[in-house]
Task: structure prediction
Amino acid sequence: MFDFDEELKNLPEEPGVYLMHDSSDKIIYVGKAKILKNRVRQYFQKNSNHTPKVLAMVSNIAYFEYIVTDSETEALALECNLIKKYRPKYNILLKDDKHYPYIKVTINEDYPRVMKVRKLQKDGAKYYGPYVCGSTIKNTLDIVQKLFIPPTCHRKFPQDIGKGRPCLNYHINNCFAPCTGRVSKEEYRRVFFDICRFLDGNHKELIESLTEDMKTASKMLEFERAAALRDKINAITDIEEKQKIINTDKQDDRDVIAVAYDENIAFCEIFFVRSGKVLGRESYKIDNAQNTAPEEIVTDFVKQFYQNCDYIPGEILTEYEIYDKELIADWLRARKNKKVKIIVPKRGEKLQLVRMVKKNADMALENYKLKVMKEREKNKLLDTLQETLGLSKSPGRIEAYDISNISGADNVGGMVVFENGKPAKRKYRIFKIKSFDGADDYAAMKEVIYRRFRHALEEEEKINNGEMRLSDAKFLPLPDLILLDGGKGHLHVISELMEMLDSDIPVFGMVKDDRHRTRALVSKNGELGISPVSAVFKLITFIQDEVHKTAIEYHRKLHGKIESELDKIPGIGEKRRKALLTMFGSVDKIKVADVDELLNVREMDRKSAEAVYDYFRRGNNV
Result:
C-alpha cells in the first residue's frame, strides 16, 4: 500500500521529474519541478484551487515516483522525453511528430550537389527549409533544375571528368555537363553559388537578367528560347507569390505560434518564416486540452514541438506568454548553440503576423468542428438504421457480400466494408471460389463468408499467441451487421452458417426489383418497408451498388486473364472459348483435360482440341 503522507515527507528539495501512476500501474501524468518537494505536495493539498482536470487526475493517482536531475533544464528535457515515450492521459499531447524536408546544397564540397534531405547535420553544407508542403519543395527543386541545370547523375567529380560520353540530360539541355571537362572547377562552383542566392531569395537581379535575355532572344527571332526564358521568369514569380514576404527590417528566421480553443478542443497553428518568407505552415490538434489555460497549451506545444525538431529559429513569436520562458529559451539555446528569443509581440508588424496565424488557427478549429458535426449526422443515420432493423447496437462496421460469374464459370465473391457509414476501401476483400464449379450462388456465398470468419479466427489465435498485432489483421474486427446481395434463399443459407459458427451477428438480404434496383431489405420475418426517399434507403442502395461493382470488377479482371490465355491458342476464337468455359467451368479444368475430353465440346474439332492440349501440356503453361 502506497503511503502518500510518508512519501510526500520524503520528497527531496531538488529539481527533477515526477510520474503519476494509476491503479493499473499506467503513467497518467509526467511533470517537471524546480523543487520536487514543493511541486508534488501541491497536488495533494486540500485547500488548493485546482482545475477540474487536475482534480480528475489526482483522484486517479495510486502512487507516484520521481527522478532527481542536476538542473531544472535537465528536468525539462527529461520531461519531454518521458511524455513522448508514455503519452500520459492527462498531459497535453501533440498528435503528430513530423520531420520536415530541407534542400541541401553541399557547398562545403569542391564539387557541390543539391538534394532533398530529412535531417540537418553540422557538416558545413547550406540547408534551406523546412518545407512543410511536399509540393513546394518539389516545385522549388524543379525550378532550380530548369534554371541552373546542375548534374543529377551519380557520377563523382572530379574523378569522373572525361570518363565516358555525356548522358541524355546533356543532349536535351538539362545539364551543363561538367563530365565533358569543358567546365572549370570555378565555373562549376559559381553555378551552385547562384543556386544558393536563388534559394536565399535574391530573385530581383535574376529576374532582371532573365528579362533582358528574353528581350534579346525575341529581337533575334529566337522565339523558342524566349518562351523558355518567359516560363522561367513566371516560375520564379510564382514562387515569390506563394512565399509571402514579411517586410521586416531584418529578414531573420522565425516561427510564429497561435492557439484556438473551445471547450475540449484546441488547435495550435505554426508558421515557418525563413529569410522573410513564409515557407510553410502546419496545424496541430491538441489532445487532453480540456480545462487548460491557453498559456499552458502553448507552453506544452513549444516543449514537445521543438524537442526533436531539426531546426530551431532564432526567434519564436507566440500569442500568449509561456510558462518558464527563460528556462525553455535556455534549453532551446543549448540545442541550437545560438541565442533563441521567445517573444509575445504587443504592437507593430510582428503582432500583425501573430494575428494572421491566429486567424488560421481559428479556421482550423472551425473546420474541425464542422467535420465533427458531419460525423454526428452520420452517427444519427446509423442510429436510425439500428432502430429500423431492431439491432442491439449501432452498426459501426457493416459488411456486404455479392457473387459474380458467367454461366457458372469463374465464380468470385466480393466483400465491402463500411465503417461509420463510409466505405473503407482498403478493407474490401475479394475471393475466388474454390470448393466447386458451376452456378450455385448459395454455395458460393456460404464459402466466402465461411472463409472470411475462418481467417478472422486464425488471426485471433495469432494475436493471442503474440504472433500478430491487431493493426496487421485483415479480417478483424468482426462486423456489427452483414448484408447479402440476395433474397430469402441467400438469407436462409447464411443464417444456418452463422448458427453453425455460433455467431449472433445480424444478417439481412438486399433484394432488387425487376429493373435490378434496390427494393428492400429482407429478414427472417419477411421484407422490411423502408421509405425510398429516406437516408437509410439511400445508404443501403449505395452499399448494394458498391458490393455488386466490386464483385463484377474482380470477375471481369479474372475472366479477362482467362480469355487472354485462351485467345493465345491457334484456332480458339470467341465461340469455342465460351463453349469450353461452359463445359469445363474453369480454365484449370481445361488445362488438365485430354484430347478426347476436349472433343466432347460440340464446337471443337480434333485440330483445335490438340492445339489446346499442346498449349497447356508442352508450352510454357504446364
User: Anything to note?
Assistant: The first strand starts at residue 16 and ends at 21. The two ends are 73 Å apart (CA to CA). The chain has a mean pLDDT of 85.
